[in-house]
Amino acid sequence: MSRYTTTTDADLQEMLQTIGVGSLDEIFDRQIPAGVRLRERLDIPEGLPEQDVYAHLRELAANNTSAEDEITFLGAGMYDHYVPAVIDMLMSRSEFLTPYTPYQPEISQGGLQVMFEYQTTISELTGLPVSNASVYEGPSAVAAAGYLAKLANGKTRYVASAGLHPHSLQTLKTYAHGYDIEVVVVPLKDGVTDADAWAAAIDGETSAVFFAQPNVLGAVEDASALSAAAKNSPAVVIAQVDPITLGVLAPPGECGVDVAVGEGQALGNRLDFGGPSFGFFAATTAYLRRMPGRIAGETKDVDGRRGFVLTLQTREQHIRREKATSNICTAQALNALGGVVYLAWLGKQGFQELGELLLQRTHYTREALAALDGVSKLHEQPVVREFAVTLDVPSVAAVIDRCQDAGVHPGADLEALTGDPAHRGGLLVALTEQRSRRDIDKLVEVLGAAVTAERAAGAPEEVAA
């Protein structure tokens, strides 16, 4: 123990004598049953010098392929956007990087102001008046919104579009099982939520309705119509939105949505093998006191100076357990800082121009791929930054492997992502501003060759007469 602490042998003996035992083993004998104690040494190799550890870690890292090593069109919720240097610079400052939670406003004004400014940007993006200081990530934000609805109306059914990201749908089902709420999934039709089935599924026992904008196939939903279908029920209307698309799509608050949630990774956060990121959560004022997490507010001190405080804290640590609205214990404040810096760096005009750029590049890519032999559009709905095509091949995974061998990742295997056999042959392709016209043309060339090769490999051999 003295290898890692300042406890000397003499200190240890004095402590053992004080509590009346002869050794550390005697303490363990009293507390831990013999049957579960490990008597031999752990089978761990001896330590290595620091430079050897560094070399070993570099060797392991070399087995990975990053978005900087190949041209990637992967998306499905996490996207390879450019992250400006100013974000890393600010996120690495010690006053943001090292603090835990800002309980004391007298020493945490900078952190609280970041939360307040972040909430302001999310409200402006979503068109909803209140935002919290972030949640963990997108899927748990969807589930937390469902719990908000349960607390608000006490109803027993959720109605969810099959266009929700599958990770979000799975998370929602897991949470709902815990408080005995049925989840009814409405299928897609022609790439978007089946409007008739959606309206028929909503009734007086519906606690919340959930849809994605754009949906998992990249299609733009009629958010106003989906919201309107629930207005004669007690249901809370919840939309999972891609924040990057809000530069060109109507904000959810203007479409009748009560709660807007989503994944914030695309806003100034790197891919980093899936995390960490942050989730955002905005709502109408009717649900202010049922929102999860924390909300920072603006105030004045005794001298009349502008200041910031935590206005609402709805977890069980801060209020009575029976009144708590969630178990969210930590806002993803550092990652949310990256988000607000990114939005400030772009500005309103830059954010809109980014959305328009994605529209143009996505349209060009979609049309170019659909012109290939063996590739067709999965649906004809409008798309913004992501779309699905169908490959006429025995194996999408094999096509992806062929493309990767050529230095291009063409996208996500849709059936593998959703687990739905109806999506067999589907490929989900995502665009960011990082993908140039040259990159897109390379994708078209490589994917076309891979589809042709895979179709030839899967064709039955001709039998000679």
From TrEMBL:
<dbReference type="GO" id="GO:0004375">
    <property type="term" value="F:glycine dehydrogenase (decarboxylating) activity"/>
</dbReference>
<dbReference type="InterPro" id="IPR015421">
    <property type="entry name" value="PyrdxlP-dep_Trfase_major"/>
</dbReference>
<dbReference type="Pfam" id="PF02347">
    <property type="entry name" value="GDC-P"/>
</dbReference>
<protein>
    <submittedName>
        <fullName>Glycine dehydrogenase (Decarboxylating) subunit 1</fullName>
        <ecNumber>1.4.4.2</ecNumber>
    </submittedName>
</protein>
<dbReference type="InterPro" id="IPR023010">
    <property type="entry name" value="GcvPA"/>
</dbReference>
<dbReference type="InterPro" id="IPR015422">
    <property type="entry name" value="PyrdxlP-dep_Trfase_small"/>
</dbReference>
<keyword id="KW-0560">Oxidoreductase</keyword>
<dbReference type="InterPro" id="IPR015424">
    <property type="entry name" value="PyrdxlP-dep_Trfase"/>
</dbReference>
<dbReference type="InterPro" id="IPR049315">
    <property type="entry name" value="GDC-P_N"/>
</dbReference>
<dbReference type="GO" id="GO:0009116">
    <property type="term" value="P:nucleoside metabolic process"/>
</dbReference>
<feature type="domain" description="Glycine cleavage system P-protein N-terminal">
    <location>
        <begin position="3"/>
        <end position="447"/>
    </location>
</feature>
